[in-house]
Amino acid sequence: MTELRVGIDTRPGWTVLVVRGKILFDTHEPLSRALKEAMAGHQPKIVVDLHEVTVCDSSGLQLLVDAYRQVTAAGGAFRLARARSLVRRVLDITNLTTILVVHDSVDAAVSASPGSGSEREPGDRRPGGPSI
User: Fold this and answer.
1) In 37-53, which positions are buried (b, 16+ CB within 10 angstroms) versus exposed (e)?
2) Ranges of Basic and acidic residues compositional bias (predicted)?
């Protein structure tokens, strides 16, 4: 089993989860726990920093989509940052980047205006966005 590590950082009003390793069906539990903890507050604001993630399988994608749904349902914001080429390609191919906006940096994710994509309600059918 490949180890997945999740560090927690903060920015004013935001929780930043810094993920390292492979997000796979048998390794994603540390990320799942960190997301649950970060979502515990009222209207959570979460950035998942993917810079040190080398691969993400379908269970990892489902984990991110589930977190997005829960955070947006609670009136919060959920954003991704710094996805490497392989992870970014998986997000693009699955069309998830129309919902889970990937920012070039954590600072860009935190400073992006509300409604920049990651605060859409599940099922929002804006042009170019899939219903999840």
Assistant:
1) ebbeeeebbbbbbbeeb
2) 118-132
Name 96's Cβ contacts closer than 8 Å, sequence gap at least 6: 61, 64, 65, 130
Grouping H, G, I as helix, E, B as strand and the rest as coil, residue 39 is coil
CA distance 77 to 3: 28
Per the CB < 8 A criterion, the answer to whether 23 and 31 are in contact is yes
Residue with tokens 């390793």, as numbered in its chain: 21
Using the structure block, give the residue that is written with the tokens 């997945």: 4
Per-residue pLDDT of the chain (132 residues; tens, 9 = 90+): 569 999 999 999 999 999 999 999 999 999 999 999 999 988 999 999 999 999 999 999 999 999 999 999 999 999 999 999 999 999 999 999 999 989 999 999 999 987 655 554 444 433 344 444
pTM for the whole thing?
0.86
Amino acid 2 reads T
The residues, any chain, with a CB within 8 Å of residue 66's CB and separated by 6 or more, are: none
| Domain spanning 4-109: CATH 2.40.170.20 | no
